[in-house]
Q: What sequence folds into this?
């Protein structure tokens, strides 16, 4: 008889079900809540018959797998498979060697934020250029093991790219629903290239989610949005990588962009499981930053009644243009349990932060830059002190939305009305960071004079 490696528990009513009894829309039939994956160690010390290797043994094992040539060992997700036993047959694992993303030092951004120590965990360095790959390898592997032919998602861009790539790798067929005209073309091009059936709906992201939710209950299509709890199992692994890269030290604070809000919940789950197993001595605070134009969690956070009200999302940071986030309760729990905070950032603040990160030679998509913009506010409010060690989660690669970057540096991103709202100090900050192309006649003397004028300018601090 096969022993169950995990169960699913509703995050609303706490009903526990067998992992194969979940409905096609991944909603609890009793309360419509979302599920989380439950292991024997999820709530505390393991029983004698199910005890895992001790923390030192796990650390050694995970490090040893890095030198292996097996695809599952080269994956930064499946290298930690001892803590996500969701696939019975490793031959069914669908991987593009995701994970193992860099942890960058950001000294100039730290100075701009007013702290001593700042790192960025760049999930944009995954195979399809975003953090979604870590969750997609997990959930799509489950779909492959369970024999599905079709998979689908609603997306603002990154999810669709990841799903299409992993479905293509597995030989599955994929369907992408996207809001018409509200997606960065770089992301949409990926879905097309990976062979997805792409459907643009004349609605927003939340409208796409609603349509897809109805379809998966009528057809044998495996849903791969973040309501799927197996997505979060993969997305928790950057927490493992992060502390491993820091020689098993735990930063004081993690700052995460807030869109559909599953990523912050996944990271919180990863840190909590490591804490329960004795791999780390404590858990970090997790704070979530949203764009002002797509800020339902921020409004919940400052509301004395703690009531979640969907908003009509409007932000140039397309990856987080979500007004009715499915995983808001999980994210709220992460903030409350780990002692974090929630903030919002304006369009100008996001653009400035993105340029500051880019000036360090790193680069990220606009949605990632809300982390630095929000960090500045948290430091100013005293929620993060200068000596705390902070890690920003950068969720997407800079080439995900190249049009945004080009428009910023050409000073074409904002309207005249938006630019008029900037203070003189803010205008100076933006001007110092903009690097628009210089167009010259093909005249050597003119080129030389232009270069000399720039070479004589002082290097920015």
A:
């Amino acid at each position: 008889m096969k022993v169950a490696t995990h169960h699913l528990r509703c995050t609303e009513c706490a009903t526990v079900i067998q992992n194969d009894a979940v409905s096609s829309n991944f909603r609890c039939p009793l309360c419509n809540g979302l599920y989380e994956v439950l292991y024997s160690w999820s709530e505390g010390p393991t029983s004698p018959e199910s005890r895992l290797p001790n923390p030192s043994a796990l650390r050694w094992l995970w490090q040893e797998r890095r030198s292996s040539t097996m695809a599952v060992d080269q994956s930064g997700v499946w290298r930690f498979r001892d803590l996500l036993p969701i696939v019975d047959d490793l031959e069914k694992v669908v991987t593009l060697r995701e994970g193992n993303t860099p942890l960058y030092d950001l000294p100039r951004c730290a100075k701009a934020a007013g702290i001593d120590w700042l790192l960025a965990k760049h999930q944009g360095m995954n195979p399809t250029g975003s953090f979604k790959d870590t969750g997609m390898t997990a959930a799509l592997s489950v779909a492959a093991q369970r024999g599905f032919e079709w998979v689908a998602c609603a997306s603002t861009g990154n999810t669709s790219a990841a799903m299409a790539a992993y479905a293509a790798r597995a030989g599955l067929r994929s369907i992408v629903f996207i809001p018409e005209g509200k997606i960065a073309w770089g992301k949409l091009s990926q879905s097309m290239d990976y062979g997805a059936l792409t459907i643009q709906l004349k609605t927003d992201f939340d409208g796409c989610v609603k349509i897809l939710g109805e379809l998966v209950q009528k057809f044998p299509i495996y849903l791969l949005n973040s309501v799927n709890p197996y997505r979060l199992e993969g997305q928790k692994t950057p927490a493992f990588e992060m502390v491993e890269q820091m020689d098993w030290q735990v930063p004081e604070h993690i700052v995460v962009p807030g869109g559909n809000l599953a990523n912050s919940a996944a990271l919180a789950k990863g840190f909590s499981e490591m804490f329960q197993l004795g791999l780390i001595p404590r858990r970090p605070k997790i704070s979530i930053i949203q764009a002002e134009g797509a800020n339902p969690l921020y409004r919940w956070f400052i509301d004395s009644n703690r009531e979640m009200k969907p908003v009509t999302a409007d932000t140039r940071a397309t990856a987080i243009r979500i007004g009715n986030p499915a995983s808001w309760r999980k994210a709220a729990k992460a903030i409350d349990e780990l002692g974090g905070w929630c903030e919002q950032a304006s369009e100008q603040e996001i653009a400035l932060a993105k340029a500051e990160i880019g000036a360090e030679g790193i680069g990220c998509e606009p949605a990632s830059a809300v982390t630095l913009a929000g960090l500045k506010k948290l430091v100013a409010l005293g929620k993060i002190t200068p000596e705390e060690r902070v890690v920003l989660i950068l969720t997407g690669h800079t080439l995900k939305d190249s049009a945004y970057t080009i428009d910023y540096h050409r000073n074409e991103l904002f309207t005249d009305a938006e630019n008029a709202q900037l203070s003189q100090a803010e205008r100076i900050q933006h001007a110092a960071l903009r690097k628009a192309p210089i167009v010259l006649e093909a005249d050597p003397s003119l080129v030389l004079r232009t270069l000399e004028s720039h070479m004589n300018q002082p290097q920015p601090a």
